[in-house]
Amino acid sequence: MTLTFEPLDDRPGLAVIDQIERQRYRIHTPTPIALREAETDVFQYPVGDAVRIRTRAIELPTVVMVYVRDDDGAIAAEVAQFESETLPADDYVLDPLTQIKTYMRVEDTKVEVTVDSDRTRIEFDAPTDLLIGARSQHDRPAATVTTTEQPADVMAAVETFGSALKAHDPERSYPTLRGHPPALEIGDTLDIPADIDSPDTGVTLELPPDLASIFVAAPLSYYLGASLAPASEPRLTTDTGFTYSLDTAQGFESEVGRTLKRLFFLDCVTRTEGFHKIDLHERSAIEPYVDLDFESLYQRPLAEQVATYLQVPYDVIEDHIPKWRLTTHIDPEPANAEQLPYVVDDLAIVRTHQQQRLNQASVPAEAEAEFTRDDVITRAASSETDTPTAETDYVEPQAENSLEQAWIGDSIPIGASKLTKAAFEHRLDRDTNAEDITIRVVQNDARMDEERQVVDDVYGTRDDLPFDVTVHDDLTTAELRTVLTTDAEFFHYIGHTEHDGFVCSDGKLDVTTVDSVGIDTFLLNACNSYNQGLALVEKGAIAGIVTLNEVLNDGAVRIGETVARLLNCGFPLRAALTIARGESVLGGQYIVVGDGGVTVAQTKNGTPNLLDISATAAGYNVEMIAYSMDNKGLGAIIFPFFEDCQEYFLSPGSIGKFTISSSELSEFLQMQQVPVRTDENLYWSNSMELEDIS
Description:
Helix content is 20%, strand content 31%. By secondary structure, the chain is α/β, with parallel strands linked by helices.
């Protein structure tokens, strides 16, 4: 995101606050003024870095809510889209809800904040000193813990996860106040670095000393900063004498998930008594049905809050809890403990249910009668028989009530992403790209020109983001090797693959023979691309979409187009595929390998969303479904810009249902490009007609 500061003279310079939350601020202003001592301590929230400048105005090329606070932290004004506020001269801290968590402080200054249809502007009555502070999101492990395979040692290692929390009050339900847990490695001895400072929150989880129980409880342990202790029966205890069984009629795994959701949700409601005193929809929805004094609760110790929350019946609040982003199904093997920190960082629900393994992924019979992307006629350099896949068993994790599903284990998952440790590590090594977003499209079969034309019309169509799109046709193995080893944010492959290589004009290129790749993310829209996609991740990529078997060409075109549009809108890879699967009967043949939470492009409005619209006699019913991003995770808030909306909503999941007029809907759809679902059909907001809505 770029912030433009109006200079005070004709000699604007350029200063850059160094990389914060993987993005850059570009500040166009004269040379920044030196910071006064301890100025990073003047904000109500913690900041990791600050810069002082002198300017007349700040303009953001996006629409964001802006809070203005007084010196005591109380909200003096909040400005939403199509609003403007002017405040008298005083000391203020401005808190714009930008992608990077940023605070701006001015002293004895008159402030005017204006948010219009596409921009946010903050103006001062005269040139003023402005202190800008920003907080790193702590999106990578700060240390590495070594553990043996013994459950007692794994338990001690997981107990360190809470050290990454930046707050131990309800404010930690904000994603920017939950840091990344320490990394885990399996070794010969337990080794916890001395600089890891695990909190004492007064909460203990007593668990059976087995890996399955520890894995399932890891996200709850992290969120509570809880101690872990071995016990024959799982339960939560506090230092105040409160005890809560985790082995209920729901079953241990389900109860742990419900407990995490209940505590997290009630923290989100209670925090409205903290720094952000906002009108939260979920609070108004549950407050008549719960006997809770949220103002008093906010001030109490975490252990007392937990004991109070767990006396609220789950079914009273269940319908108001935000849709969870991710459920991760894990094979409880010692090696898989190394992926726990990355799963916990997502605050995922963890399951260890063992599903019946399948001999092969199912393919609809009608595929045999239609042109597929593995049609033997098109295999110019293919062998007569396929090389068998290295992994022969499949697993179909039980679908859970989350937006996305993932799998950790040796088997090939159906209907879930395949997570790997290498993918997470590659993401941590990923450099922030301050230049153009590089996209490479390879079409290795002329008969698939339809998809190539579609993606040509999609990639790089956003005026607010710089794209560098290159299309390659009919590559040789050497040429494809060059493309794969050259740095790029996204690689879209249209053609044929076999288990042992990409089919090229002069033979097959097996990615396992490549030393390393330069691409970050990819879509291999070809039959049987799982093995080659997994190899791309092992060789340096972060994540990609692959196929498990043969796919029909028509369905592949629909999937390819939908994924391209969703990625262009800023959806994470896994969320994009979750939506795109519904566009073809063979959508189940596609899965994500690697860290599917990664994005290719930044979303324009901060949170990617899908609109579900239906026509009524009174106008149109609109339901907004928000999807999480790593910097807009569980606990983020959204303010839908509808005329009669007066409340904030928790994200992700359904963000309210609104009835609006045709004129308001038409204006809303033109604000940005988002996917729209109506009568089971998927459209795009900036190219659809209201007549398409039934």
